[in-house]
Amino acid sequence: MPFESPVIVALDYPDAESALALADRLNPQRCRVKVGKELFTACGPSVVESLQYKGFEVFLDLKFHDIPNTTANAVKAAAELGVWMVNVHASGGRSMMGACREMLERYPGNRPLLTAVTILTSLEQSDLQEIGLDIEPMVQVQRLARLAQESGLDGVVCSAREARALRGALGDDFLLVTPGIRPAESNTDDQKRIVTPAQAIENGSSYLVIGRPITRSDNPANALEAILATC
Ligand SMILES: O=C(O)c1cc(=O)[nH]c(=O)n1[C@@H]1O[C@H](COP(=O)(O)O)[C@@H](O)[C@H]1O
């Protein structure tokens, strides 16, 4: 893409028709798109291929979290699909992330970027406490991000609230993919660790994952442009 857009639009839809209709209202020169669990479970690889055919680079967000062999082969299937980015959960551990990275060495020309989810942006400290993690999100995100970098990953998925600290600790080349983005005064929905687009970029985010603020807008292309204008 000639203009390197920081925005990845989350196509969280129950069927291909709705997802492709939204994609038709966007310009693939102005954003990338994300296919997640709902759309992929309903439609499978064909919706990824349809989006690629329309000119979009696709982030396949299936957040794989399993034993190393299973996860590495899932990442391999994603690479065969020609996706731009694929992700796993960092809490799957070093061997799992390393096995995925090693598997992708087989795709030197068109290797997908491999990122690891740290702590979901829908969680805050009290949620972590309930699952036995008596730790601040910032501290756990930093720990997992360091592990992901040591395991050879290209970057992490985190809240833009953690981006400044991670950028300082992990360097300029490590990708920080940040969901939980909400323009000022928009609905927070189920997100808890939210940041505005402008603040996310200022904090050092590489990519902003944005769903409902764009997809639920009356004019998604205008909503995207309004966000890009602030970045
Ligand atoms: O991996 C992700 O993309 C992801 C990680 C995370 O911590 N939080 C998070 O919201 N996401 C995804 O980012 C998108 C956010 O969508 P909106 O809340 O509608 O902007 C959804 O598709 C989520 O699945």
UniProtKB/TrEMBL annotation:
Q: Does the keyword Lyase apply?
A: yes
User: Do you know which InterPro entries this protein is assigned to?
Assistant: Aldolase_TIM, OMPdecase, OMPdecase_AS, OMPdecase_bac, OMPdeCOase_dom, RibuloseP-bd_barrel
EC assignment: the record states: 4.1.1.23
Q: Which GO terms describe its biological process?
A: 'de novo' pyrimidine nucleobase biosynthetic process; 'de novo' UMP biosynthetic process
The record lists substrate as bound by 12, 34, 61-70, 121, 182, 191, 211-212
| Annotated catalytic residues | 61, 63, 66
Enzymatic reactions: orotidine 5'-phosphate + H(+) = UMP + CO2
Query: Membrane-spanning regions, if any?
Result: none
Q: Which GO terms describe its cellular component?
A: cytosol
Which SMART domains does UniProt cross-reference here? Answer: OMPdecase
What HAMAP family does the record point to? OMPdecase_type1_B
Please give the name of this protein: Orotidine 5'-phosphate decarboxylase
